[in-house]
User: What shape does this take?
Amino acid sequence: MKCKDVRPAKARVAVSVGDSVRIVRELQGLTQSELARRTKIPQSTISAIENDNVNLGVERAKVLARVLRCHPAVLVFPGWEVTKQSAA
Assistant: This one.
């Protein structure tokens, strides 16, 4: 297959910040309670974040990303669309 034959995937569903936290948490096989224990963020706050009732914030994003083994931007900017290809 040639590179010119490849089309970038299009987003099918809008994902909120809370959705991204929940999706990554579930992919890691963690419950909210386990994530709360590892991050020292109350489970009620994690629930509120996942339900988009509380803003994630940069500092919490860093803490969650460290435990969830992802870049904080994955959590903070779930709908980010890259328009330029990287030179790498």
